[in-house]
Amino acid sequence: MKSKNINDITLFRYLFCLDKRDLPQSILNWCNNIGSAIDSDRENAIRELSIVKDNCRNLVVFSKTFVDTMDKSYMKFTQFHIDILQELDNENGVVRSPYFIEGCYVVYSIKNGCLTLWIFQDNIDKFLSIPTYYICVSPKDKIKGNGHQLDCMVLPLIDGCVEANIRDYIDMVLDYLCLRQWAEVQLGKVSTTIRKEVKKNKKTQIVTEAGLDYYRFDSKWYTEICNDESFKVSGHFRLQPYGDGTRKLIWINEFTKNGYHRKATIDKVKDGEVTLT
Length: 277
What we know:
This protein is α+β, with helices and mostly antiparallel strands. It has seven helices and twelve strands. A hairpin with a 5-residue loop joins strand 10 and strand 11 (247-252).
């Protein structure tokens, strides 16, 4: 099935109130039509999506380079899971990774120290975004640091649903939240447009309107930048800090910079240039 435009995906139209359709009820109807059993647990998990509607951060798409480097040290963030779930209480959002199944999005919600995930696939049905799994994650104990473990409840939402590496969804969301909250991150905003047909003076015209925005996620924690070319830096104001704790507004004249090299933050830590507390 051809990939859908972000503005045509039922999930986003529901989350950001662009579609008046009751998505949870539509999903339940779809499950009944294909003969998938709907018990009280499945129904409650699907209807719980309503708490995210009109209260959701924009979609964040992880860059492939970010995920590749994350894989090398994702276990380093397990010690912060309790802290991040406390700090981001009541946050809802939706993320996409290049390693998710094509057309797959993860909706997350954080409440009272518990992380809830809905795994959505957009290529199961032509019209609807269908959730395949409902996952609840909470700290198994109150131990902070390396001894901490997560208690996970995984509920398939349609019959015959089999997917490997469910844990990857959990790790990816938690690690993203930790990095976004505490590390140097780069969120590049991407704006989309919608082309619509409208009738004016008995003629059909094509107009372009603003669509949904989303963000691409990368992190300076893992990114090393080298630039050997000279470039001009425009004149600008800067708040200059002084040893007595004050800051003064100063003007920096235009100058030519002969390239630069910024080490990845993780390498600065290794080399003792930055100390994490």
